[in-house]
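Practice set, problem 2.
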Amino acid sequence: MSLPALLLRHQAEFGPVLPVDLSGPAVARLDFTANNPLVAAADLRDTAAFERLVHALLAAQHATVGVGGYLENRVIYRRSPHFGPGAAPQARSLHLGVDVWLPAGAPVLAPLPATIHSLADNANFGDYGPTVILQHALEDTTFYSLYGHLSRREWQHLRPGQRLEKGAAFATVGPYPENGDWPPHLHFQLIADLGSYAGDFPGVAPPAERAAWAARCPDPNLVLQSSWL
């Protein structure tokens, strides 16, 4: 059985990743592609200005939490050389997770029982910052979930091999600059095949490789179950 089919089969068992109703009226979908003129024209290298833009996008939709991004071809990665073309054969702009934009300090929860696979502080400008990868098992299938842009405060006390029960608050959303220098948000990503990665995994891919990366990183909304996604 494919991982997406398995996740669909077990959807009723998943808990929230954040203590927020991601289908509620306070949530809005945010567009960070070139189709959004406010984003396309913004100087996103200034993180404080970027945060003001996020707040403006939310306010325009009378929302306080933003969601979106899976397989979105975004312009926002142009702010950092980490995403190429110097760092890769071609620039990476295809987002492989879902971002939830909300204030720093929000607890991050394990949506089902897990073991901490690995940790890293990916401290490049525009990178994940403090990162956790959890390992899960459903039936006979092992898969992983990645949490990026966390606070160092709780993250520094975690250890690989540590067991987490479903619903355990193991981290919080981090502030900038320690979160990779982004406006506060959680990057949540599912990974079917982690390969040799530990504490890190591509969250953005070249658009030409969409099919391969989508197969390796299924839709995070299979777990999040937001009606806005």
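Problem 2, part (b): a different protein.
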Amino acid sequence: MGNDVSLNSQQWLSAPSHQRSIHPAVLSPAKRAIDIVGALVGLTLTAIALIPIAIAIQIYSPGPIFYSQMRCGWRGKPFRIWKFRSMVVNADQLKHKVQNQANGHIFKNNEDPRITPAGKILRKTSLDEFPQFWNVLKGDMSLVGTRPPTLDEVSKYSHFHWQRLEVKPGITGEWQVNGRSQVTNFNDIVKMDLNYQKKWSLAYDLKLILKTIGVVLTKEGAC
């Protein structure tokens, strides 16, 4: 699987030079500065919430507090993403038993039986995403970007899909403020990601961050 991802990445990087130019969002020192400040604030909030979240996770499903998984970042570079565990311990091994309600190279099920009662609350409040502030601080992710795909998803990408990886993945983005879990068509997600790249500016990033706060507080589109 890793070889497939590497091959597709090389195919994308061998595209004409105008397609290989680095997106300004990746090069922006100001965006990186905002990411660092936001990550430090986010990690502080994560530390404050850690103990009650850990207790809730253990009550319903004893085991690790955190869940990690390999994802693909900018131009397909693999990195390890971190979340608070919202599913049973052996969730990955049970995935084949759950029906995929999404279309395309994503996996979604709004009634996924692997999600624990504590996990449902974590997901509705987006608290499960808070450990990703560590990924932002490291530089693997940004506060605002594209949805970070799995290696298995990327191994199936066409040339069109690879365009979404021309910016770093984000904790939030167009998909977060325009439906979240209700968006079940992968091509719609790709179009949102490409729209973000087209409209990107620091002001637009800040606008999406503010919109995200509103969406999280109202639990709009969460499941």
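Answer key, part (b): DSSP finds twelve helices and four strands in the chain. The longest helix spans residues 29-60.
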